[in-house]
């Protein structure tokens, strides 16, 4: 699956400020930045990312997914370490 398509799906579904998706074969890494994550537990943040991708995960189109989520404030501090 194309990384840009995943980025657009997540951005549209969650109104993200930024979405960065990289792929290494069948493994995808998602870095998502948005106000929607403010106050959410880590589990809820992961569920928020999985929800718009559920069809692709169920079909096997997306196999392995690593997720990192940040609010815009957190991203300002963490950007250098996560890109």
TrEMBL record:
Q: Give the Gene3D superfamilies listed for this entry.
A: BolA-like (3.30.300.90)
Name the InterPro entries for this protein: BolA, BolA-like_sf, BolA/IbaG_stress_morph_reg
Q: Which domain of life is it from?
A: Bacteria
Q: What family does this belong to?
A: Belongs to the BolA/IbaG family.
* PANTHER family from the UniProt entry: ACID STRESS PROTEIN IBAG, BOLA TRANSCRIPTION REGULATOR
This chain's protein is named BolA family transcriptional regulator
- What lineage does UniProt assign to this protein's organism? Bacteria, Pseudomonadati, Pseudomonadota, Gammaproteobacteria, Alteromonadales
